[in-house]
Amino acid sequence: MLPDIAPVLADALAKAKLVTIASGGGGGAAESALSNISSVIQTVLAAQLVTKGGLLSATEDGQQ
Questions:
Q1: Residue 40: HSE in the Cβ half-sphere, 13 Å Cα cutoff
Q2: CA dist 38 → 3, 41, 48, 49, 57 (Å)
Q3: Number of domains composing the chain
Q4: What separation in angstroms does the CA of 13 have from each of 9, 17, 38, 55?
Q5: Residue 64 confidence (pLDDT) above 60
Q6: Rounded to two decimals, what is the model's pTM?
Q7: Of the residues 13, 14, 37, 62, which has the maximum number of CB atoms within 10 A of its CB?
Q8: Are 8 and 55 in contact (CB under 8 A)?
Q9: Is 54 inside any structural domain?
Q10: Does residue 36 lie in a domain region?
Q11: Buried b (16+ CB within 10 A) or exposed e, 4-26
């Protein structure tokens, strides 16, 4: 699963034009951007796991 989507994610990040405004958390803009990127990767992996892992049955995902 990861080898399938890693090149796509890497390409998307290479083309991304990120603008991050850090809040007063102390980590700064770089830490905030890294956290946001990590969240996106986790979401994509979870979605892949759900769809390819068969965790949704035909009736749960709206298909008959």
A1: 14
A2: 17, 5, 15, 16, 28
A3: 1
A4: 6, 8, 11, 28
A5: no
A6: 0.57
A7: 37
A8: no
A9: no
A10: yes
A11: eeeeeeeeeeeeeeeeeeeeeee
Q: Considering the domain boundaries, does residue 6 fall inside one?
A: no
Give a yes or no: residue 25 inside a domain: yes
pLDDT in tens, 2-54: 677 778 878 887 888 877 776 666 777 778 888 888 888 888 888 888 887 76
Q: Quote the pLDDT of residue 58.
A: 55
The pLDDT assigned to 12 comes to 81
For 17-24, the CB contacts below 8 A with 24+ separation are none
Block residue for tokens 């399938």: 4
Tokens of 4: 């399938």
Where in the sequence is the domain holding 25, given as residue range(s)? 18-42
